Amino acid sequence: MTPSEFSLLLLSVFISVVGQFFLKLGALKLGRVHTGNAASHILSIMTTPELLVGLTCYALGAVAYILLLTRVNLSVAAPSVSIGYILSVLLGYLILKEPISLIRLVGLSLIVVGVILVVWRK
User: Whole-model pTM?
Assistant: First the structure.
């Protein structure tokens, strides 16, 4: 993967992670969904600013990913976007104060090693 391709990957992942973060903020604003409030929640999704920002970021991230796929094999691009998991966990920890267990740190470390092995060129 060339530096420009890697930059496009990071852009796609970063925008998608920001989208996930805003979707979480919007979901917290909506509250817990159950059968009695599901219909109203579906309508609220269209008017909750955080959810709209999150969905927009997802769309922009998808466009960047499509551009990446024009240049990189799917067998490299698809596993590489898993670095978004690491960024999501970090955002959850730093901003939403979500705990990170030792086993989760081990799992994230394995993801990092896996991505390095997938994109490694001889």
Answer: 0.83
